[in-house]
Design goal:
Helix content: 10-25%
Number of helices: 2
Order of helices and strands: HEEEEEEEEEEHE
Mean pLDDT: 84
Low-confidence stretches: 11-21, 68-82
Number of strands: 11
Number of domains: 1
Shape: elongated
């Protein structure tokens, strides 16, 4: 089969799927830091004073467990929801993101925060403050995806499915892990479903 014919057939199937899809599944997502904590002690006993723990979030989405044809994950089904982002989320001062996602039926394995500071003309993430009085600053300059998995896959297959998802990123634990800021951000997320 030629590449052009395959592409035409594939796009036709996607279009038919979009036409046949009946909206109804909604997932309420709330993203926040731990309670605002500007000064605290690490597990090792070091005193940390935070000035900023800022994430610049361009979009939020649910990640499908099986990604078909390399299309990636499904954030908001077929553009039915435009979202309210981008967001400047400061974990140190108690900022939150609240969003309603409208995914297609399927099995989902995690929540993805697409970090990208270009909408704010800045970096994707910034951490600044003091450890034991010494100034520290860390940035993630370019876009990256923060993926936080569910403990068990989340099956959404009925219009009555309306889960409430809570993603907590505990900024106090950033200093209890080794690695880059991106790697440490991946280690501090806790995702609950109600």
């Amino acid at each position: 089969m030629s590449r052009r014919l395959f592409l035409a057939v594939f796009l036709s199937l996607v279009a038919l799927h979009c036409v046949a899809y009946e909206p109804g599944i909604e997932a309420e997502l709330r993203v926040s830091g731990a309670p605002p904590t500007l000064a605290f002690h690490t597990e090792a006993g070091e005193r940390v004073e935070l000035d900023q723990a800022v994430l610049y979030v361009d979009a939020v989405e649910l990640r499908a467990c099986e990604l078909t044809y390399g299309l990636g994950s499904v954030a908001r089904a077929h553009g039915l929801e435009t979202g309210t982002g981008p967001w400047r989320l400061d974990l140190a001062t108690g900022g939150t993101i609240s969003e309603i996602l409208r995914p297609v039926p399927g099995e989902y394995c995690g929540v993805v925060l697409h970090m990208d500071g270009r909408s704010f003309e800045t970096v994707a993430a910034r951490l600044a403050g003091r450890i034991e009085g010494a100034t520290m600053e860390e940035d993630v300059p370019g876009p990256f995806d923060l993926v936080v998995p569910f403990v068990e896959p989340l099956l959404l297959d009925d219009r009555a499915d309306q889960p409430a998802l809570e993603l907590t990123l505990d900024q106090r634990k950033l200093f209890d892990h080794e690695g880059t800021l991106t790697e440490r951000l991946e280690a501090i997320g806790q995702l609950t479903v109600r």
